[in-house]
Design goal:
It is a single chain. The chain contains 8 helices and 12 strands. It is of the alpha+beta class and 231 residues long. The strands form 3 sheets. A 4-stranded antiparallel β-sheet has the order 1-8-3-6. The protein has a 4-stranded antiparallel β-sheet with strand order 2-7-4-5. α5 crosses α7, α5 packs across α8 and α6 crosses α7.
Length: 231
């Protein structure tokens, strides 16, 4: 592998460190390429390294006893994962799979903890990440406890719409178009349910498919729909 790629300059967690410090951390990492859909971390494994996504992206998942995949998070290029095991020494809480061809750097837990202790800016970003995990888990528990499967799909589409870029008309454009299986994994339902809900939203004029994107043509109506269900 070319050493020109072995840099942590694009990792947001380490952005405030000076280049020499990032280079020193990079030298402590192991570097590995993964193909699409290849496992990076296995749930319940005893490894404790922290992983940096140099390029590509990964998905954090767990599997039910019946084998259904439940998606917890996506990690884009520049992100990191695996910090929980490094912090508490417990087995991995989830599996991580590469979504696309990826280059990943893994840092031993002792080195990661040293970086946190010596760099308050990194420690604060890790705390922010942990806070985001707790908030996301709280929202997910609330959805599963109060919303039916159809309603959870609607809420997921709304969340994606609020994060999406707008077209010239001001309508959110979710791109690429949501994959039924991936949405189902996130909201704990089936592909068939996702397809049925999206078709229903399209019939009502709330969403519209355009090539490889889903345009939310009536965001206000979708917001009201989800708010009424959550009340």
């Amino acid at each position: 592998m070319s050493t020109t790629l072995e840099t942590l300059d694009g990792i947001a967690l380490l952005a405030d460190l000076d280049p020499a410090r990032r280079e020193a951390i990079a030298k402590q990492c192991r570097w590995k390429r993964y193909n699409a859909n290849e496992q990076i971390i296995d749930r319940q494994s005893e490894t404790r390294d922290v992983f940096f996504m140099i390029s590509g992206s990964a998905r954090v998942v767990i599997y039910s006893l019946s084998g259904r995949e439940v998606t917890l998070d996506d990690v884009p290029s520049g992100g990191f994962f695996g910090e929980l095991a490094a912090l508490d020494g417990a087995p991995r809480s989830a599996s991580v799979m590469s979504i696309s061809e990826s280059l990943v750097a893994s840092l031993p837990p002792e080195a990661f903890l040293r970086v946190i202790r010596e760099n308050p800016s990194v420690a604060m970003l890790v705390l922010g990440r942990l806070t985001a995990i707790v908030r996301a888990a709280t929202d997910r528990i609330l959805d599963l406890s109060t919303l039916g499967a159809n309603n959870r799909v609607q809420a997921e589409i709304l969340r994606r719409a609020l994060d999406a870029k707008e077209n010239e008309k001001g309508d959110p454009v979710i791109s690429p178009i949501p994959v039924h299986g991936e949405v189902a994994s996130r909201v704990s339902t089936t592909r068939e349910t996702v397809a049925r809900v999206l078709n229903d939203l399209a019939r009502k004029g709330i969403v519209k498919r355009e090539r490889d994107a889903l345009v939310v043509t009536d965001l206000g109506r979708l917001e009201v729909m989800v708010a009424d269900l959550s009340a």
